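Reading a protein record of the kind used here takes only a little practice. An example makes this concrete, so a full record is given next.
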Amino acid sequence: MSIERRWQDWNAISILLLPLAGLFWLVAASRRLCYRLQLCRRHRLPVPVIVVGNITVGGTGKTPLVIWLVNYLKAAGWHPGVVARGYGGKASRWPQQVRADSDPVMVGDEPLLVAAGTGCPVCVGPDRVAAAQQLLQHGQCDIIVSDDGLQHYRLARDVEIVVVDGQRRYGNGLPLPAGPLREPVKRAQRADWVIVQGEPLNGEHRLQLSDAQIRPLRGGAAEPLANWAGRSVHAVAGIGFPQRFFQTLADAGLQVSEHPYPDHHPFAAADLAFDDQRPVLMTAKDAVKCRRFARDHHYVVTVQARPGAAFEAALAQKLKEFPRG
C-alpha cells in the first residue's frame, strides 16, 4: 500500500508515528507563532504577492492553477513574475532564473511548466524572498505569484489561495509523518480562497481540469484525448497523486497499464522501456524530464485548468485594491 493511501485513514502505522507527528506539529506551530508575534521578520515587497499553496503534501493541482492565474494576470494588464522552491533542482547557486529550455535537473520540473505555459519570468530557490527580489531587480514585474509558498512565511503576502484535492481532502487529519497535513485544517480557513479540484464544499471554489489533449513528445500536432478511446497504452506518472492521471485516461476510454513513480521522479530512458511498442503516455510535468530521450511512441497528455466564474469575479475585485507600479 502506498503512503498516500495509508494517510487516508487511521491505521497501525499512523498510530506508531503519532509521537513524530506530535513533534512535527510542535515545531510547525512554534514557527507560525514566531511570525505572528513578529519575533521572526517578514519581508514585504514593493509589489503585491499572491501565494498559491496547500496544507497537505502531494499533488492538488497547484501548478495548473498557477499557470492559469499568471495568464489571467497578464490578460488583465499586469506583469507577473513567479517564484518557487525549485524542488529537486541540483543547481549549486540560488536563486536561478528559469526559461522554457532550462534543465529540469538544475531547476526542477514544475517551474519549467510555468515558464513554458506563461512566457513570464520565473525564478526559483530555497529563499523565495531572494528569488522575488531578483525578479524585481532584473525585470518589469509588478506582481509576484509564489508557487507552493504557503508555509514560506518570510515572504509577506497580500493574497492566499489554498488548493485542495477533492478526492483525498485532508486524509486522516494527522500531521506528517502520520498523515498528510503540513498545517492544521483550520489554516485553510484563514486563506482568502480555497479552490478544490473536485467537488467543493460551502465557501470553496471548483478548479476544473478539462480539454485533455495528447501529442507526440518529440513534436507534432495535438489531438483530443478522446480520439484514443479503446487503445491500449502504458501510462507513467511521477506526480503527487498518479492515480488521478491514470483515471483521466481510463475515463477517456483508454486501456491503461499503470506505472506510478514517486513525485518529482528523475526519469531515465529505462523507465519508459517496456517489452512492447504500445504508446507510452505521461503528464506534462514528467514530459519536461523525458524529452531528451523521447522516442516516436512517447506522448504527453495536457489539460487546461480553469476556476469557476465566481472565483474570477472575486479575484478581479481583489486586484482592484492594489495600485499598479
The longest helix spans residues 18-36. Residues 209-305 form one domain. The mean pLDDT is 93. Residues 162 and 188 are 6 Å apart (CA to CA).
